[in-house]
């Protein structure tokens, strides 16, 4: 894993401000595979989870099938619902 990504994840975990070099663009996406896996572990349907989280079941289906950019507050809400660290659910992508 590149050093800058390790730094990003460490800062995220320690709730520190992240400084990123301008020449590299980094995105943190919700990892759809981990999201779907954690949803399955909960033993709830996508519809039940959507209702619990006050969102559409269509959006939950999308999050279960495609890596998506979500707000940090939504990623945090998912981490709390699943009982996992927020950084576990994120997929860090470096654009070239």
Task: Quickly describe the structure.
By secondary structure, this protein is α+β, with helices and mostly antiparallel strands. It is built from six helices and two strands; from the N terminus they run αβαααααβ. 56% of the residues lie in helices and 12% in strands.
Notes on the protein architecture:
The longest helix has 11 residues. The two termini are 16 Å apart. This protein has a single domain, classed as lambda repressor-like DNA-binding domains (434 Repressor (Amino-terminal Domain)), CATH 1.10.260. Helices cover 56% and strands 12% of the residues. It is globular and about 40 Å long.
Describe this protein with a few key phrases.
two-stranded antiparallel sheet, 12% strand, 6 helices, single chain, 96 residues, 2 strands, 434 Repressor (Amino-terminal Domain), globular
Order of helices and strands: HEHHHHHE
The CATH homologous superfamily corresponds to: lambda repressor-like DNA-binding domains
Number of strands: 2
* Count, helices: 6
Give helix % range: 55-70%
Largest sheet: 2 strands, antiparallel
Structural class: alpha+beta
- Structurally, the number of domains stands at 1
> Remind me, CATH topology?
434 Repressor (Amino-terminal Domain)
The outline comes out as globular
Strand order, largest beta sheet: 1-2
Alpha carbon gyration radius: 14 Å
The first-level CATH class name: Mainly Alpha
Q: What's the average pLDDT? A: 85
Low-pLDDT ranges: none
So, CATH architecture?
Orthogonal Bundle
